[in-house]
Amino acid sequence: MGFFDAMGALFALTALFAYLNYQYVRLPTPIGVMLAGLLLSLGLLLVGGPAEAWAQELVASVPFEEVLMQGMLAFLLFAGALHVNLEDLRRRWVSILTLATLGVLVSTFVVGTGVYYLAAWLGLELPYVHALLFGALISPTDPIAVLGLLKRAGVPKDLEVLISGESLFNDGVGVVVFAVILSLVQTGGHGAEASAAAVAAFFAQEALGGLALGLGLGLVAFYMLRRTDDYSVEVLITLALVSGGYALAANLHTSGPLAMVVAGLLIGNHGRALAMSERTREHLDTFWEMTDEILNALLFVLIGLEVLLVRYTPGYLELAALSVPLVLAARFLSVGLPIGALRLVRPFAGYTVRLMTWGGLRGGISVALALGLPPGPERELILAMTYGVVVFSVLVQGLTIGRLARFAAGR
Hints:
Elements: H1 3-25, H2 29-47, H3 49-61, H4 64-81, H5 86-91, H6 93-121, H7 128-138, H8 143-150, H9 157-187, H10 196-226, H11 231-252, H12 256-274, H13 278-305, H14 316-342, H15 352-358, H16 364-371, H17 377-408
Pfam families: Na_H_Exchanger (PF00999)
Protein name: Na(+)/H(+) antiporter NhaP
Membrane topology: Multi-pass membrane protein
């Protein structure tokens, strides 16, 4: 099956699932379509035959990692950042920066160490460096899942800013940590001591370069928007900013996600207020909200269908199930320790750690990183654990975070 045929079938399935969810179930669209895709996949696995073979061919024809990491992610991050208030982020920048850096490192170590011992207890072979690799890809909260679901959950405003701000920036740190550990896997750990300077340089180029590129491109787009009064041209400028800017970041070896977040924040806060007419703002908001909704729906259907590619050999399902409470415990520690320290200098609501633990959703980025690992038994085990955590995160945490938030806030 060709790529465009597969995308046509995927759009058709997404529209069907969204329609059925709207008519009969009324779950949040990302959760509803993912659940439908998951149920379809499980049904096909049970029935087997030509239908299962067709579905597996469909999923295999859409390279998930490439479609998300090199395509959808740029548009989803820009659309999400477009409506984040920069002043709210500025007031919480110390907390957000601490959680996005220290929190990821703590979680990576806790998850990696825990999974290593759990795998040994179940009689599965998982080298410690591969266990840390799983910790690195599962520790950052997914900005797509977080921004897509929290805005519907009724989370208190101050906490929504903290969680969404953390999720926008911690994936950059997570990808750097993931890349460093992956290089250790590929080299067998040789030269690790000598690579400290290289790691620092890599982080500076990726993170700082991405931030600078996003700011520069955002300013260029802002200048063009300010000199234009035609909403179709202005929407086209933002499209060029996202697609061209993300491609440029890849060629410059800087962080495309961070560049899109910064560009989105600049255009969303200053561009909308100072460079657009009211009519343009309405069209721009409508366009990017629709883009966000459609791509989110496509992404979550893909996540639901990816179960067709996951191999659950003996012990894999058990380790995947045990990984869920382990990741939650690591999230509790990685949030609780920084928040506990920050409470010495500023107040936090009593429910902050609990809601941030439960609201730290994982999604497509973790699945994409797992699918991009080199072939081997460790990849299959890591993919099984990743899929188990992501499904639980989206379906269980995503559906209950609103109730937990209302209960915690006494509403």
